[in-house]
Amino acid sequence: MIRMRSTGGSQVVVELRNMGQRVVENARKTMHASAGRIVQEAKLNTPVDTHDLEQSIRIEKSYGTAGRLQIDIVAGGGHIDAYAAEVHENYNPEHAGEGTKEKMRQNPGRLIGEKYLDRAVEDEEGKLNARIIGAISKVTTKL
């Protein structure tokens, strides 16, 4: 009969738990940073009138089941809800005001106008996947 004994098993379990926590923390940090970049891009894409629309673009976060982070990027609120939706879906650059024209001059090559949120998300989306994988890899390569 062969008898074997293993020691250090509880240390492995603790290390795996710690690693799992670090993965979650790194993923959350990465998501927060990505959301911040989306907000910045959306604000750059937004037409300018009174700056209310730009200033209304924000991050709303909540936590779902099991503490799962949920981040929404929203525009509007209060008196500009309908305006935010109208500009996002149907903006006509031919009717751009002076503020928007100045913003266009300051940002040549950038589309200022409709789908300002969608375009900001699309720009960040592919990068986010790679960044999440990188954040996870940082933790798991320390095994």
From TrEMBL:
<protein>
    <recommendedName>
        <fullName>HK97 gp10 family phage protein</fullName>
    </recommendedName>
</protein>
<dbReference type="Pfam" id="PF04883">
    <property type="entry name" value="HK97-gp10_like"/>
</dbReference>
<dbReference type="InterPro" id="IPR010064">
    <property type="entry name" value="HK97-gp10_tail"/>
</dbReference>
